[in-house]
Amino acid sequence: MRKTTRITQGLSEKRAKITVTKTKRRNIAILAVSMFLANVAFGMAFPYLGVYMRLLGASMFMVGLLSVAFNLTSTVFQYPFGWLSDSTGNRKGFISFGLVSFGLFYAMMAFVGSATGVLILRTLQGIFGSAMMPAHSALISELSTRAGSIFGLFNSIENAGFMVGNFLGSAIVKSFGVRRLFLISGLLLFASAGIVLLIRERSSGRRSILGMILVQEGRESWRATVKGSAFRKLMRGYLGLFYVTVFLVMVASGQFYSVSSVYFKETFGEWSVGVIFGIESLAAALTGYFLGKLIDRHGAKRFYLIAIAGYGLAFLLYAVVRNVWLVFGIAFLSGVKWVLTINSTSAYVAQNVRVSERAQGMGLLNAMMSLGWVVGPLIGGYLSGISFQLNFMSTLIPLGLAFLLALRLPG
Fold first, then answer.
1. DSSP track, 18-37
2. Which of these, 171, 172, 200, 232, is most buried using a 10 Å CB contact count?
């Protein structure tokens, strides 16, 4: 009797494991399709935001301010959205809401007639679109125990989508204009939001958000202190140092990418904008999965240091090279350093933050990236008004500091 019971229990456990595996594979496939479509839309619209602002009469400083507004609001709202995702156990709902928000405001950009209107809509994108970012990273980390490989897989898929969007965007702008480009991007994001809702999420001991008590002026709150403890833990010790290095790298990134589309248009022609961004995305798509496997094998820190050095080399070359064909080669290098950064930083968080706080850890990672993109575009917009080359060369300062600090991280 006992033997029969053990056999029956063993078969039940085996069937349960098979079901869980099938569900995870199904979820991976659904999320992959959704994120591919979303990144096609992002790849179409993002490179032309700065160009659109200039067409509407914006100054270089205002072009930089477009990135500041988006990333400032993202920085403020990503961590609370990550906490809500952890608290409710809901990933797909927050991802879908964020995608719909991105799509709605991109579609609305097609109908505005001023740079100020675009700036307002981009700010609203930062507020509501940030709902997807921590939940997206947390869901990916829960689909596999091999963080580097799963992030590498999704970064390859998403960069492939972004690449397709870059090349499509260039063709659409040439044939139909920038306004229709934003409208088409919005429609693709609506489709992506619907697809992600097909994911099957497991119940994970959800905590009621009705029990949340926010800190109020002049009154202490035990519950608020407990909820805030995750943030304080994440910012202590070597993890805090890690987040500081991410911020510095993204300051440099913001300096460059907030104005790069305008620089490429003025230096090589409007046709080059989508092509250069497309090559960067192609490089990331081709190498992301394999670099993720190497990160699993050799550790995230080593590849994070390589990524920081890659940023410095790419931005230095962009500053001095004037031949567009050589710039295409630099773009490939730049795509590799980007996917190395995303894979290694995401894997570092996944490997060093416990599951119950992982969305908050990922949210804080995204927030530090966004915060860097608040400071960087302010610097980039100002310095590019003097000289694009001065701006690009000055990125070596935050990158050098980030590299030295990252050397102190435990491997």
1. HHHHHHHHHHHHHHHHHHHH
2. 172
153 vs 133: CA distance, rounded Å: 17
The number of helix segments (H) and strand segments (E) in the chain equals 16, 0
Rounded CA gap, 257 and 360, in Å?
A: 26
Q: Which domains does the chain have, with CATH numbers?
A: 23-194+227-406 (1.20.1250.20)
Residue 186 DSSP SS3:
helix
Rg (CA), the chain: 22
Nearest Cα to Cα of residue 304 among 315, 292, 290: 292
- Output the CA–CA distances (angstroms, integers) from residue 150 to 11, 49, 282, 293, in the order listed: 29, 30, 18, 9
pLDDT of res. 227:
43
Q: For residue 379, what are its two tokens?
A: 């610097």
Q: What is the pTM of this model?
A: 0.70
Digit-coded pLDDT (tens) for 47-87: 888 888 988 888 888 888 888 888 788 777 877 887 788 77
- The number of residues making up the chain comes to 411
Q: Is the pLDDT of residue 216 over 60?
A: no
Distance separating alpha carbons of residues 162 and 185, to the nearest angstrom:
12
Residues 328, 323: Cα–Cα separation, whole Å: 9
pLDDT for 208: 35
Q: How far apart are alpha carbons 63 and 370 in whole angstroms?
A: 16
